[in-house]
Amino acid sequence: MTGVIRTRRSVVQAFRRGSWRPSLDTVALPGRSGLSLSLVPEAVAAAYRRRYEPPAGSFPPAARRKLIDTALGLFDRGTVTVGGLGEQSAADFRTALWETAGVPAALTDRWCGLLRGASARPVEEPDGAPALVSLPGNTFTCLESVLAEAARSAAVRVRPSRREPLSSARLVAALLEAGWPPERLVLCPTERAALRILVGLTDRQTVYGGAGPTASVRASDRLHVRGPGRGCALVPPGTDPAEAVDRLLPLVAGDGGRFCSNVRTVVCVEEPTSTEEPAGTEEPAGTEEPAVLEASPAAEGRPGTGRRAAEGPGSAAALALAVARHLADALDALRAEPVDDRLPLAAFRVPGEAGQCARRLREGLGPGDRMLTRRSPAARGADGAEYALPALALLGPGAGPGHPLVGREAPFPFAAVPAASPAGAAAVAGTSSFIHRPRGGAL
After folding, report:
1. Could you tell me if residue 129 is left (phi over 0), alpha (psi between -120 and 50 degrees) or otherwise beta?
2. Cβ-Cβ contacts under 8 Å for 395 (sequence gap 6 or more)
3. DSSP for 301-337, written as a single string
4. Which letter does DSSP use for residue 24 in this model?
5. What is the model's pLDDT at position 326?
6. Residues 6+ apart with CB under 8 A from 53
7. Is 185 helix (H, G, I), strand (E, B) or coil?
8. What percent of the chain clears pLDDT 70, i.e. is strictly above it?
9. Which of 1, 18, 274, 378 is the most buried (most CB within 10 A)?
10. Which segment of 93-97, 189-193, 215-219, 257-261 scores lowest on mean pLDDT?
11. For 49-101, what is each residue's pLDDT tens digit?
12. CA-based Rg of the chain, rounded to a whole angstrom?
């Protein structure tokens, strides 16, 4: 197995058949913590079906809800026992996440709060199906899918990210500490090739990830694939650029730019002609409206902004330039260290990876495109931390859904700003799962 090492160092163990279990096959976690992750071999994963017995006894929704609430409290602020690591306090967890995944404590605190909020949904009636959740490494808020399946399935198999398995292991440990039946939980870290085996062993699956993980599994009616969100924001003509940026900045840079719902494309829309429908009149299925961008009455008549800046040919381009400049300045003002508690940035723990990500992004620039953020693409912090600094590209004329930077997802804050006709804006929105539009849904 590529990258797999055999070691006796401290490892995060798998949890299967009711107990924590080590493995001879391990992979080192990023950073300098010295931690490794046990990997379940494909042959062992394939044997689960032969050994699986449906859990006996009743486990009603009310009992599940009570244990989930208890487990979330332990996950956030308690001390739990993680196989291979021993007792882990809340402070230990935050330190380990920072050292291995570059997630600062401010983000961990916020994500714990989001996880608790998401888990407050009503518990579905259990259906007795074994389920699988394969998790990403960008954020642990996706553990909400684990909790949802724990609440309804006979047993849930959790396949953690190899880059960030600590949160998955901690949640399993917290559920066990709360009193969750151990036969109803499996923590199964594997190589990517074993994912298809785990899919075949379960009746319902949720798989997170990009093109690699999702392409390795076959589509089925009970497989829910959660890939890139390609979030976009539509900025209507007449918007005050400075006021727009006040709302755009947290959408682009919030949560370290690591959420699939982060805005990646800011589309400045031309005034519609009499023959054009407003952008976004037909909303793609599954979109959300988590934010509002409104044209500001205060912008009327202000030189270089608002309605006067949006008049005449090329008005969308003028608005895009003004919005891009304001947003680039705001992104350049975000600091990596000391951590900005309002909009904290996450670090990279694989040496050189931050610079590589930043360079790959710039390789997508085409004729007429330019990067408006002014800082060096990457920076080095304390404790070996590396950062890909927030970036913004102003795209040239005609940039649409086929442009390599439109909807481009990066593991740090990045946005591309094109100007578009209403039809062009609708085309970009049609490729996005998260659309941030003006109040009312039309421009």
Report:
1. beta
2. 320, 366, 368, 369, 403, 405, 406, 416, 417, 418, 419
3. T-TTSHHHHT-STTHHHHHHHHHHHHHHHHHHT--TT
4. S
5. 97
6. none
7. strand
8. 83
9. 378
10. 215-219
11. 666 677 777 899 999 999 999 999 999 999 999 999 999 999 999 999 999 99
12. 23
Distance CA 334, CA 257 (A): 12
Average predicted confidence (pLDDT) for the chain: 86
Count the helix, strand and coil residues of the chain and give each as a percent rounded to the nearest 5: 35, 15, 45
Could you tell me the pLDDT band of residue 40, with boundaries at 50, 70 and 90? very high
Helix (H) or strand (E) holding 232: strand 231-235
CA distance linking residue 347 with residue 379, whole number of Å: 10
Tell me the one-letter amino acid at 185.
L
State both tokens at 366: 């085409």
Angle between helices 105-118 and 90-101 (to 10 degrees): 110
Please enumerate in sequence order all residues whose Cβ is within 8 A of that of 249, keeping only pairs 6 or more positions apart, or say none: 327, 330, 331, 343
* Residue 327 to residue 319: CA distance in whole angstroms: 12
Contact by Cβ (8 Å): 378, 229: no
DSSP letter, residue 341: S
Cα 36–Cα 37–Cα 41 angle in degrees, nearest 5: 135
Q: What is the identity of the amino acid at 104?
A: P
- Cβ neighbours for 304, distance < 8 A, ≥ 6 positions apart: 322
Quick one: how many helices (H) and strands (E) in the chain?
14, 21
Q: Which residue has the tokens 């058949």?
A: 17
Structure-token pair, residue 229: 């969100």
| Tokens representing residue 8 in the block | 């006796």
Q: Is 402 exposed, middle or buried (0-12, 13-18, 19+ CB in 10 A)?
A: exposed
